[in-house]
Amino acid sequence: MLDALDEARIREIAASPASLRQFLHGLPGVDQVGAEARAATLGTRSIKTTAKAEAIDLAIRMIDLTTLEGQDTPGKVRALCAKARRPDPSDASVPQVAAICVYPDLVTVARDALAGSGIHVASVATGFPSGRTSLAVKLADTRDAVDAGADEVDMVIDRGAFLTGRYTDVLAEIVAVREACVRSDGTRAHLKVILETGELATYDNVRRASWLAMLAGADFIKTSTGKVSPAATPPVTMIMLEAVRDFRDATGRQVGVKPAGGIRTTKDAIKNIVLVNEVAGEDWLSPEWFRLGASSLLNDLLMQRQKLRTGRYAGADYFTLD
């Protein structure tokens, strides 16, 4: 159990490279075999029909419906926003998704298309997906997204700095990006910090990066950009859920989790919801605290939902392509 951490103690840890290193390397180590075995066991939990229907609707409400391709166009974003508002035009009972996630230059398009819906607009920033650019460019990228109307910013950490032990550099960059999320009226876009866990090499590094991001003020910690494999594996998501649970126990501040990349089926989504319930707890079972970053998951959820409702599977071409 970690000792209680107040703001003064966090500032003290962050102020010294030696203190930050000592804290991060003093976190409990991850038993790789045990973590993988537990995640696999939780992934086999069966869910009854009624609970499955509720889980499918919850998963839909948790989706950050995403398009992050070089060939993205305003028309594609508007079509995706229409789907976010009404995932199945034939069934008004299907809930809306949590957010649309796009590149900064398409934030205005998404904001206009989603006006009045309550669906958030998220934007990647900071030289996504590599993060290989100067801090000045990263901050400008963030401000562009926020000024365009982004409610949420998904930034990527400097994995090179993290892997070479320059933890204070990573922390300072997150703090600076968080400050760039402040709007002219004093309100702030929420900051999701992408760890790109597929490049962190070990589960211990995943735990350290999770704590580092939270100490820097992240509102969410996110597994991946979706551009690197492996992405959101169950053991990695489980370790990040343990981290947010322990962080809240230590500080009193709750942080969200967003697995992204490789979550394509209803089975994948339900496995993640089970992980949330069993590891972090019910307090994280809402779109406010848990998101699923996905581009192709929604159609499978809609197909499974219709199967539960009617007893028949719709064809793969019944729903619009994302």
Automatic annotation (TrEMBL):
UniProt-listed InterPro entries: Aldolase_TIM, DeoC, DeoC/FbaB/LacD_aldolase
Reactions listed under catalytic activity: 2-deoxy-D-ribose 5-phosphate = D-glyceraldehyde 3-phosphate + acetaldehyde
Keyword Lyase found: yes
Single Gene Ontology BP annotation: deoxyribonucleotide catabolic process
Pfam families per record: DeoC
Entry EC no(s): 4.1.2.4
Pathways per UniProt: Carbohydrate degradation; 2-deoxy-D-ribose 1-phosphate degradation; D-glyceraldehyde 3-phosphate and acetaldehyde from 2-deoxy-alpha-D-ribose 1-phosphate: step 2/2
A cellular-component GO term for this protein: cytoplasm
Taxonomic superkingdom: Bacteria
Swiss-Prot/TrEMBL keywords: Lyase, Schiff base
Gene Ontology MF terms: deoxyribose-phosphate aldolase activity
The keyword Membrane is assigned to this record: no
NCBIfam families given in the database record: deoC (TIGR00126)
Family: Belongs to the DeoC/FbaB aldolase family. DeoC type 2 subfamily.
Protein name (database record): Deoxyribose-phosphate aldolase
